[in-house]
Every structure is written in C-alpha cells, then in structure tokens.
C-alpha cells in the first residue's frame, strides 16, 4: 500500500443517483455520488470560515472514469486556518488503508479535496501540490483529482473538480 502525506467518514453511495463532473465523451471524467457531495458540503460548512479538506478514495473504471466512492475528512490533528489547510496525514493514510482493505483492493487514493470559503479557483499552492503528487511514486497517481468546495454568492457550497494532466489543472 502506498504511503503519502501532504498539505492542504466515508459516505454511503449505494442507491444514490450519480452527479457526474465532466463530459462523458472525455477520456477521464469524474463521477461523484450525491451523498459524497452532501458530505463535502457539510464538512466545509462545519469548519467555515476556515478551510478544511481531506482525500478522495475510489477507482478508475474500464472507461477511464474516476469514480469517487468515499471521502476522508481532515482527521483529528489537522490544522485549519482562513487560507490554508493541513490534513492529518496519519489519519488519512489509516482511512485509505481501511477503505482499500474493505473494498478488497478496488478502492485507493485518487486525489485531494478541500474548501475555499471565499470562492476562487485553485491557488498556486494547490497547483504545486498536485504537481508534487503526480511526480511522487508513493502516490502512484499520475493524474490526481483535485476537488475544491467553493462558497459562491448564494453562500452555498459548490464543488469544482480538476485533474492534473500534462503539467496543468484541467477543469472537469
């Protein structure tokens, strides 16, 4: 099992309609279940006005779609501030290991998620983190996903998803 640490509860997915980000004609769209988006919204609101986040767990299916089956939250030793977030790496690793085992090896780390309480796209730190993950053999993820929960004018939390492809973030 790969080991990873870096800056920045599983949600049930059965019987829930899918929300897909990205055009299915693309080679690598991201598929999220409504229950996962709800979990991300609740966690983002709970920690607001500070940032929060964690990791995305799932798999890449035979059609090249990244299917997110669970999210891991920040963990008990995470650091939250208005403009930065550092997840609890030991907690995240233990949760990914657990979910990997429970799925009989199907599910694993597929990317990162975090909140931006004051809407805005990926920061330079986000871009640097995704580049680092892509190049780090411990992650074994050349095209990791970045999901940012943004609070927009309506004050509601909305997901924006990206994939690190060929040295840049591509919005899905």
How does this structure look, described?
This protein is α+β, with helices and mostly antiparallel strands and 172 residues long. The chain has one domain: Cytidine Deaminase, domain 2 (3-Layer(aba) Sandwich), CATH 3.40.140.10. It has helices spanning 34-47, 89-102, 124-135, and strands at 18-21, 30-33, 53-60, 66-72, 79-80, 85-86, 108-116, 145-151, 157-165, 168-171. Strands 1-2-4-3-7-8-9-10 form an eight-stranded mixed beta sheet. Strands 5-6 form a two-stranded antiparallel ribbon. The longest helix is centred in the N-terminal third of the chain and has 14 residues, at 34-47. The radius of gyration is 15 Å and the shape is globular. Residues 1-27 have low confidence and may be disordered.
SSE pattern: EEHEEEEHEHEEE
CATH fold topology: Cytidine Deaminase, domain 2
Distance between the termini: 28 Å
Oligomer: single chain
- Summed up, the domain count is 1
Level-1 CATH class name: Alpha Beta
Coarse shape = globular
Tell me the radius of gyration. Answer: 15 Å
Residues in β-strands, percent: 25-35%
Low-confidence region ranges: 1-27
**Per CATH, which architecture?**
3-Layer(aba) Sandwich
Q: How many beta-strand segments?
A: 10
Helix content: 10-25%
Structural class: alpha+beta
Spatial strand order of the main sheet: 1-2-4-3-7-8-9-10
Can you tell me the CATH superfamily? Cytidine Deaminase, domain 2
Average pLDDT confidence is 83
Work out the helix count.
3
The main sheet comes to: 8 strands, mixed
Keywords:
3 helices; eight-stranded mixed beta sheet; alpha+beta; 172 residues; Cytidine Deaminase, domain 2; 23% helix; globular; two-stranded antiparallel sheet
């Amino acid at each position: 099992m790969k080991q990873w640490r870096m800056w920045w509860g599983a949600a049930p997915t059965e019987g829930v309609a899918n929300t897909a980000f990205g055009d299915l004609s693309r080679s690598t769209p991201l598929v999220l279940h409504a229950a996962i988006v709800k979990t991300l919204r609740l966690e983002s609101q709970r920690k607001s006005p500070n940032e929060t986040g964690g990791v995305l767990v799932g798999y890449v299916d035979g059609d090249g779609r990244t299917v997110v089956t669970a999210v891991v939250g920040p963990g008990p030793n995470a650091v939250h501030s208005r403009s930065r977030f550092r997840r609890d790496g030991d907690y995240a690793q233990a949760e990914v290991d657990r979910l990997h085992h429970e799925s009989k090896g199907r599910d694993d780390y597929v990317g990162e998620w975090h909140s931006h309480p004051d809407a805005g796209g990926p920061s330079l730190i986000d871009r640097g983190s995704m580049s680092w993950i892509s190049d780090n053999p411990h992650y074994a993820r050349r095209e990791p996903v970045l999901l940012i929960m943004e609070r927009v004018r309506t004050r509601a939390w909305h997901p924006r998803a990206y994939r690190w492809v060929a040295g840049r973030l591509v919005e899905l």
